[in-house]
Amino acid sequence: MRNPLADKVVDIKPSGIRKFFDIVSEMPDAISLGVGEPDFDTPWHIRDEGIYSLEKGKTFYTSNAGLKELRQEICNYMMRKQNIAYDPLKEVLITVGGSEAIDVGLRAMINPGDEVLIPQPCYVSYEPCAILAGAVPVTIDLKAENEFRLTAKELEEAITEKTKVLILAFPNNPTGAIMEKKDLEAIAEVIIKHDIIVMSDEIYAELTYKGEHVSIASLPGMKERTILINGFSKAYAMTGWRLGYACGPANIIQQMTKIHQFAIMCAPTTSQYAAVEALKNGDEDIAEMRTAYNQRRRFLLNAFREMGLECFEPYGAFYVFPCIKEFGMTSDEFATRFLEEEKVAAVPGTAFGDCGEGYLRISYAYSLERLKTAMERMKRFVEKLRAEQK
Amino acid sequence: MREELLAVIEKNSRIDLKELAVILGVEEVDVVNELAALEAEGVICGYHTLINWEKTSNEKVSALIEVRVTPQRGQGFDAIAERIYKYPEVRSVYLMSGGYDLMIIIEGKSLREVSSFVSDKLSTLDTVLSTATHFILKKYKDHGTAFSQKKQDEREMITP
Fold first, then answer.
1. What is the pLDDT of residues A139-183, one digit of tens each?
2. DSSP secondary-structure letter at B119?
3. Which of A202, A306, B24, B59 has the highest count of CB atoms within 10 angstroms of its CB?
4. Which A residues, 123 through 142, put their C-beta within 8 Å of a C-beta on chain B?
5. A353 in contact with B at a CB cutoff of 8 Å?
6. Complex-level ipTM beyond the 0.85 threshold
7. Distances (CA, A) of A227 to A59, A91, A224, A238, A248
8. Cβ(B31)–Cβ(B5) below 8 Å
9. pTM for this structure?
């Protein structure tokens, strides 16, 4: 029988997070700090609106681009939070999670051989999606001394004649890094000079603990060259609802909508009705969850400080990225031993790119009680490793 | 810091001061001073424990009592409210809008004890016009906390 598979797909490496999860699921008493989704339930008034929409019989497809009311609410939100004016009819597409927007967006923009710049460490989907879209992924290794922010110099050095798209993901998974306005202004200059398009994944925008999140699309000359991706999973704890969106120039959104309509038809209707409620009345829920995350973030940073573990202060998302280089082992070895000996699962930094070597991603989408137990175990583990080194 | 501090200890008054300082991102001494100020100002009125007595062998009966009273000249409802809340079996007293004036939550050892409080003590007060007693059959949620079993972490392993 002939080979039924596409080489392009077979060649893509499986995700590095998977391996750990497989071990954890076999270990019932293990504490996982690996999950990348909020531990909160979706706020009740949002769920209620979803249920109500079902009661009213809203069980049909919506238009391909999504409910007009929801697109309007997204535009209101963008105006309110970022002072960016989007046209709900031409510049917004509702997708199945932010993930679909990444996939569809790249497919709409890439011609074979185009280069896509991917600053790493980063979320694991960008590279495979770029490859599947026919692009050549070019990674930029971000550095701890820059707090894992992208600098204009690093960007400039990675650009070639073939560079078409830069993927920018701040607040960042896995590092928790953010890009402030001054950081964005510095790279915007380079982006405009080289006529590059930015795919800005701002799914963690609401989880920013230092000032307000600034979107690169809000800078002068950037709206027309930015696909802004966001969604409801992280801000409103709505992961299972699978709802995200892309805002951007009409010509790109139009082509993205074409792929979306042929591949997906439309995002789930119930989720779209719930999302309208989230945007209208969800600001307080976000504030409450952000406060809780921020408390856990401070708790973890303090715990690392007490252990004498190096960690830059991350101001976004719900991850911390401590450095474990002092122990003279790879991230993978550290994480494996940590899991086997203390039954705590954290994801090795290398799952998010080679430059994540020497780091660990720890998620704080867990209760303080759970984090406290995990940090007690981590302290014991770190002390044991230090004793072994002597 | 004040509001966030209150929000944290309203949910967990047993949290230790050091941890409180860490999660709020302030110094421990600031937390101590702020707590002292809040107590002095009467913002913090106590540190209580939420107990589901139904799970103990301790029998308790609670009731809500709607009370209509005649307000007194110059004192409004305050004097009669004070007269009522001084009884130790009275847990809470609220002045209400609507069809009656005071709502009282009372706790006793038995049905008879609660009944005799209403008939002997409460109803006989001069300013009390009428009472309506509603016994509590089961508590599902109190002080923002549901009494049912704690939820498991339902998040499944997923990549990415």
1. 999 999 999 999 999 999 999 999 999 999 999 999 999 999 999
2. I
3. A202
4. 123-125
5. no
6. no
7. 30, 10, 8, 22, 5
8. yes
9. 0.92
